[in-house]
Design a protein that fits this description.
Distance between the termini: 15 Å
Number of helices: 20
Number of strands: 0
Radius of gyration: 24 Å
Largest sheet: none
């Protein structure tokens, strides 16, 4: 019978992540405050507003929030004050308050592109892509030079399986702002997914040249190097990503994969444990640790991790595939066939080539 080793090997997935969306304050390019008041010329409101902007630049966000609130109390029609306070609420994890302020800003000034943009970010983070897309479209209609909106709309299109639209938006973002590191990062990932490693590498390099502290760019370039069979370069990039951001779960996960492939199980296990300390909901890390436990002859620990992965993400085909392999090794044939059938169906639905691999295994088991 065909060996199941391939299934456990391919389960050591390297995951790339898109650049995270960024809110933008109303006064990133600061204009004289007098020109930004919605109505009237209330110098007290202007003063509080400008102090709020100064506090943001000093990273004193609580003080900034208080100043924007004072400006609003004096002038309830101060759209930019609502916008900036909404961004602060968003960053504090208070989406309802943020949404209320963005809505209020747009009620006062329906042409405030930054308010549509930031509300789009909020909707995107809440898993409401249609609302986010509508807001990004509106922001771009009002301000066709808002590079951030093109980048985030491209992010949405990529997630919706529309690579041509995504590429067009990333290109536009870069045309507007050739120093936009995150747009190069996202375009690089798109190229990587399209099987264009040279273009991907060029974009990752450009992102790092622009922002040497962009951990995601090192992580994604490391994934590319690993796929190309350049483990030393991959390891260097994963290390750099972790040095920049010690909470980068994906970089630990990917480095753990690399250590596993290099026959360094203790280092791999340490990295997977670190991943799960940072993000206990990262299902792929449970799969990877489960594979490691299975290879080490610890089936109970492996089964526990596969179960946890499935509890977190019931659509994760590799978790069923590897649990099926484990059940077969434990001579629990019916459970193995059940899981392998589930994996095959999920792979089929997702258009994944591993569908044929699983079907071949099932045929050998006489289960097709």
């Amino acid at each position: 019978m065909k060996s199941f080793a391939l299934l456990t090997t391919v389960s050591l997935i390297s995951l790339s992540t898109l650049a995270t969306v960024r809110p933008v304050m109303a006064l990133e390019s600061r204009q004289p405050a007098e020109t930004r008041i919605a109505q009237g010329n209330n110098q007290d409101a202007i003063g509080h507003y400008n102090r709020g902007v100064d506090y943001i630049q000093q990273e004193k966000y609580d003080l900034a929030l208080a100043e924007f609130t004072k400006a609003i109390n004096i002038n309830p029609r101060y759209a930019d004050a609502y916008l900036n306070r909404g961004v602060l609420y968003q960053q504090q994890g208070k989406p309802d308050l943020a949404l209320s302020d963005f809505n209020q800003a747009l009620n006062i000034n329906p042409l405030l592109a930054e308010a549509y943009y930031n509300r789009g970010v909020l909707y995107q983070q809440q898993g409401k892509p249609d609302l986010a897309l509508s807001d990004y479209n509106q922001a771009i209609n009002i301000n066709p030079r808002l590079a951030l909106a093109y980048n985030n709309r491209g992010f949405l299109y990529a997630g919706q399986g529309k690579p041509d639209l995504a590429l067009s938006d990333y290109n536009q973002a870069i045309n507007i702002n050739p120093r936009y590191a995150e747009a190069y990062l996202n375009r690089g990932l798109l190229y990587q997914q399209q099987g264009k490693p040279d273009l991907a590498l060029s974009d990752y390099n450009q992102a790092i040249n622009i922002n040497p502290r962009l951990a995601l760019a090192y992580n994604n370039r490391g994934v590319l190097y690993a796929v190309q069979g350049k483990p030393d370069l991959a390891l260097s990039d994963y290390n750099q990503a972790i040095n920049i951001n010690p909470r980068d779960a994906q970089a630990y996960n990917n480095r753990g994969n690399l250590y596993g492939e290099q026959g360094k199980p203790d280092l791999a296990l340490s990295d997977y444990n670190q991943v799960l300390n940072i993000n206990p909901r990262l299902a792929e890390a449970y799969i990877n640790r489960g594979v490691l436990y299975a290879v080490q002859g610890k089936p109970d620990l492996a089964l526990s991790d596969y179960n946890q992965a499935i509890n977190i993400n019931p659509q994760l085909a590799l978790a069923y595939a590897n649990r099926g392999v484990l059940y077969y090794s434990l001579q629990e044939r019916e459970k193995a066939i059940r899981d392998l059938r589930q994996a095959a169906e999920l792979f089929r639905q997702q258009g994944d080539a591993f569908y044929e691999e699983i079907m071949e295994v099932l045929r050998q088991l006489g289960a097709v």
